[in-house]
Design a protein that fits this description.
mainly alpha; 2 domains; 118 residues; globular
Length: 118
């Protein structure tokens, strides 16, 4: 939501809305990034965006949502041959161990370090 709102405000910087990470959620729910962005552009608060997601696309049970969330939170790009070099370099830049770092832990640390410099 924050990245979409920053994109709409022209303040996303190097971040890209509707990227592969965003599309993990959009694909899971069967919605399109453009439709999600329209909800944000309407000024919908976070709770309203969540309600919209729950009402749109593919219906998901609480168990399906929890299983998907656990799967996504546990992604380790270093174990993927196509992402290993990129992820290893990114983790080195942030002083993280790529073999022990999950994707979202990397993203959180990248944000922490990036915004600490500004």
């Amino acid at each position: 939501m924050d990245k979409g709102r920053a994109t709409l405000a022209g303040k996303a910087g190097e971040y890209h809305f509707d990227c592969p990470v965003d599309n993990m959620l959009f694909s899971f729910k069967g919605v399109k990034g453009d439709d999600f962005k329209k909800v944000l552009a309407a000024g919908t608060a976070d709770a309203g965006v969540v309600a919209w997601l729950n009402a749109q696309g593919t219906k998901k049970s609480p168990e399906e949502i929890e299983a998907w969330s656990e799967q996504v939170e546990g992604l380790h790009p270093y174990g993927n041959p196509g992402q290993k070099d990129w992820f290893g370099g990114e983790c080195a830049r942030l002083k993280l161990d790529p073999a022990k770092t999950a994707l979202f832990d990397y993203l959180e640390e990248d944000d922490r370090q990036t915004f600490a410099r500004k």
